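TA notes, week 10

Several of you asked for a full example with nothing omitted. So below is the full record: structure tokens for the whole chain, then the designed sequence directly under it. When grading your own attempts, check the secondary structure regions first.
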């Protein structure tokens, strides 16, 4: 069976931040929305950010934090969350599906509906000032990429991470720092360290800009989790999980991520596109 067909099945049943990504919202695209939260129609993003919380299950990694969003529906305002990583002093990387549709459409400014929160001594929230880039889903290729970058209103003192665009190899091991939701009624996350293995098997033309992963736990709510290689640089970003047991070349698939090799630079610190990157067919 072609990998592209398998990935389509994966995404139809996954949920990393939606699309059966880690932030599945009953089939609706968007950040993770706690199911039992109160829906206050008078909320503003400053209140949502001030009430959000983030902590760490172990030592807190630099540059990893909580993306906080709010979105107005027909009757109320929903608060949402995803994982995010600093790739410059004032630029955050996450998943495209974590950006509220109202921001993507230009209906509202991102400063009205999104921000970023780091743990510990860095915990003063930063508000979004502009969305620099977000990928759009191609109906013909539902296997990624799923990436977004946004700028916040000040330079943050936590050390930003470096992106690596050399590509992802079969069997390559990655550390992840996922911001897992811990409440079904409020915006709160705990950073958890885990380890993943990339499943490529020389099938890049079918995978396009995405890679399957195995060995790590991807759950509802931690979309936008960065994949760190052995040099501590970011090679990919997780955006989906597989709900049912799924095997690829003998390994159990636990998620899917975007390969950064073909992503255009969004910051002076961001390396150029890898000349040998695999582009979508």
């Amino acid at each position: 069976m072609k990998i592209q067909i398998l990935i389509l099945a994966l995404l139809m049943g996954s949920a990393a931040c939606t699309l059966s990504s880690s932030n599945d919202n009953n089939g609706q695209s968007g950040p993770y929305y706690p199911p039992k939260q109160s829906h206050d129609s008078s909320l503003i993003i400053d209140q949502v950010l001030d009430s959000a919380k983030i902590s760490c299950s172990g030592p807190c990694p630099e540059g990893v934090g909580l993306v906080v969003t709010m979105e107005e529906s027909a009757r109320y305002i929903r608060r949402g969350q995803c994982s995010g990583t600093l790739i410059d002093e004032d630029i955050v990387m996450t998943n495209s599906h974590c950006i509220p549709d109202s921001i993507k459409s230009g209906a509202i400014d991102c400063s009205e509906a999104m921000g970023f929160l780091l743990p510990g001594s860095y915990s003063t929230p930063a508000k979004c000032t502009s969305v620099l880039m977000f990928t759009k889903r191609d109906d013909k290729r539902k296997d990624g990429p799923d990436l977004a970058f946004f700028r916040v209103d000040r330079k943050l003192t936590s050390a930003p991470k470096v992106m690596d665009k050399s590509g992802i190899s079969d069997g390559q091991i990655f550390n992840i720092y996922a911001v897992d939701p811990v409440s079904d009624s409020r915006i709160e996350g705990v950073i958890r360290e885990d380890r993943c293995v990339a499943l490529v098997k020389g099938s890049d033309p079918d995978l396009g800009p995405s890679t399957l992963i195995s060995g790590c736990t991807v759950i509802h709510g931690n979309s936008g989790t960065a994949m760190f290689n052995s040099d501590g640089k970011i090679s990919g970003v997780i955006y989906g999980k597989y709900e049912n047991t799924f095997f690829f070349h003998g390994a159990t698939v636990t998620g899917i991520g975007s390969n950064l090799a073909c992503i255009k630079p969004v910051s002076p610190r961001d390396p150029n596109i890898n000349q040998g990157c695999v582009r979508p067919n």
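The radius of gyration is 17 Å. Use that as a sanity check on your answer.
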